[in-house]
Design brief:
7-stranded mixed β-sheet, 6-stranded parallel β-sheet, binds nicotinamide-adenine-dinucleotide, binds zinc ion
């Protein structure tokens, strides 16, 4: 017997014709879920700065494309083969959506580094079969960002992107586990392996940086210095585990001196969670000997940062790049959800606003001004 909702349907979605132009809200046709695909009804989607990079034309992407890569959804229908291969995915289950869908076969996947999978449908923005499940009124293919395109009422997603959540996880938190929580917490506990009692600084306190703060706290860091140019972000950081705060100055040397003062000469690990050359250079410059800069923020394509090699090498310092918090979503998402339920990962505090799909451009404008942390799109609102 066919599961319910397995036929073609329609969905409202935020579509970007190409990077650099405003998103528009359109009604699209969504095909029945094909082999290995799951039809979901989106419940919550977070607006991440990576969406803004695309919206503002800082990253090239093919269009038209449904935006969004952080979301939680309820499973509505399964395509052929899903029930057998993914027994946890059943209609009615709340899933957190992963923007990295491991192919399981490339060199990185075979090595256990699924976060650096090079053959993921996440990079083609199509279903694993290569098809687009969405079409616009003129019949054009519409792609889905990272193959999950969460700024849509309904979507087809690859089954491996849909990670079932334990009972009781709020949909907003499940959505944030899909990007910023996994990115930031994983940067601290997995990529940089922050040690108990060590000192940490985090530059940039959006959803990603505040998640680095929470990850450092879970790892048992003794001192966690939170740095931003917006005072309200510093107050919020204290509520999720920061022990000290530094208001970033226009003068980089003053910011570096303040970070060093708060960490007995420099943090053992400094996270950069913005993606600006100036703050990447600060993260490297504030390190003591033996310190590690963990770069999490993403720059526009083509941007370069620099540092002086001699003291870096002489002092045994390190730079790490952290993609998706070195996550294996199928195992890490439920763990982060369990930490939230146990009261040890207060991800709900990152949510500073709720909007409907129509509010997306306003949310981007607020993010450019540094206002708020995570704005959540709810799909019963617009
Ligand atoms: N590595 C990954 O896998 C990964 C995943 C998701 C997002 N990202 C990237 O992480 C970065 C942060 O994302 P977000 O959603 O948290 O962004 P955000 O815009 O919400 O947060 C950025 C923060 O940096 C602060 N800031 C900006 N300029 C500053 C400066 N000069 N000095 C001090 N603070 C400054 C802002 O006030 C804001 O609080 C983005 O570049 C995003 O693309 C990376
Ligand atoms: Zn993101
Ligand atoms: Zn792979």
């Amino acid at each position: 017997m066919l599961p319910p909702m397995s036929s073609e349907t329609s969905t409202r979605a935020a579509v970007l014709e190409r990077p650099g132009v405003p998103a528009r809200i359109e009604t699209l046709t969504l095909a029945a879920p094909g082999p290995g695909e799951v039809r979901v009804r989106m419940v919550a989607a977070g607006v991440c700065h990576s969406d803004l990079h695309v919206r503002d034309g800082e990253w090239e992407r093919e269009g038209p494309i449904v935006m969004g890569h952080e979301g939680s959804a309820v499973v509505e229908a399964l395509g052929p083969g899903v029930a057998e291969a993914f027994p946890g995915i059943r209609p009615g289950v709340l899933v957190a959506l992963s923007w990295l869908i491991p192919c399981g076969a490339c060199r990185a996947c075979r090595d256990g580094r699924v976060w650096s999978c090079s053959a993921s449908p996440s990079y083609t923005h199509r279903m694993p079969s290569g098809r687009a499940a969405l079409h616009d009124a003129s019949g054009r293919d519409v792609l889905t960002y990272c193959a999950i395109g969460t700024f849509a009422e309904r979507q087809n997603v690859p089954a491996a992107a849909a990670i079932p959540m334990p009972d009781g996880v709020p949909p907003d938190v499940a959505a944030l586990i899909g990007c910023c929580v996994t990115t930031g917490v994983g940067a601290a506990v997995k990529t940089a392996e922050v040690r108990p009692g060590s000192s940490v600084a985090v530059i940039g306190l959006g959803g990603v940086g505040l998640s680095c703060v929470m990850g450092a706290s879970i790892a048992g860091a003794g001192r966690i210095v939170a740095v931003d140019r917006v005072p309200a972000k510093l107050d919020l950081a204290r509520t999720v585990g920061a022990t000290d705060t530094v208001l970033a100055e226009a003068d980089a040397a003053a910011t570096i001196a303040a970070i060093r003062d708060a960490t007995d000469g420099g943090p053992d690990t400094c996270f950069e969670a913005i993606g600006l050359p100036a703050t990447i250079e600060q993260a490297i410059a504030c390190l003591p000997t033996g310190g590690t800069a963990c770069l999490v923020g993403m720059t526009p394509f083509g941007v370069r940062a620099s540092f002086e090699p001699f003291p870096f090498v002489d002092g045994g310092r390190r730079i790490l790049g952290s993609n998706y918090g070195s996550a294996d979503p199928a195992t890490d998402f439920p763990r982060y959800a369990a930490l939230h339920l146990a009261g040890r990962l207060p991800a709900d505090r990152l949510v500073t606003g709720h909007i409907g799909l129509d509010g997306l451009e306003d949310a981007f404008a607020a993010m450019r001004r540094g206002e708020g942390v995570r704005t959540m799109i709810g799909f019963d609102r617009a």
